[in-house]
Amino acid sequence: MSTGPNRILDDFAKLMTDAAGAAQGIRKEVETAFHAQAERWLNGMDLVKREEFEAVREMAIKALDENDALKARIDALEAKLAAKSK
User: Fold this and answer.
1) What is the arithmetic mean of pLDDT over 59-77?
2) d(C-alpha 72, C-alpha 11), whole Å
3) Domain span holding position 29
4) Which residues neighbour 10 within 8 Å (Cβ) at sequence distance 6 or greater?
5) pTM recorded for the entire structure
6) Structural domain total, the chain
7) b/e per residue 54-80 (b: at least 16 CB within 10 A)
8) CA-to-CA distance for 2 and 14, rounded, in angstroms?
């Protein structure tokens, strides 16, 4: 069994190791609480998630492309109809 200054240093080192472990545990708890609170706050703001936004954006782009194609077909049909009536 160690005595004197060595034992004091060993005890001090053990205390510092335990304190570092406790500080790390507290840090994880604070991070978890912060993330939970931030998520509650964002959910309360009625914001959309990125994935939902991207899905709706893709749908809108597809709808615009379809509208452009349909407009081109209508213009072609109207031109053909106008040519027949002359």
Assistant:
1) 97
2) 84
3) 1-47
4) 2
5) 0.47
6) 2
7) eeeeeeeeeeeeeeeeeeeeeeeeeee
8) 14
Tell me, yes or no, whether 62 and 74 share the same domain. yes
Alpha-carbon span 25 to 17, nearest angstrom: 12
Pair 2, 10: CB distance under 8 Å: yes
Please check whether residues 36 and 65 belong to one and the same domain: no
Clarify whether residues 34 and 56 are in a common domain: no
Domain identity same for 73 and 53: yes
Has residue 1 got a pLDDT over 80? no
Pair (77, 66) in one structural domain = yes
pLDDT-based confidence at residue 4 (cuts at 50, 70, 90):
low
pLDDT, one tens digit per residue, over 9-64 is 888 888 888 888 888 989 999 999 999 999 889 888 888 889 999 999 999 999 99
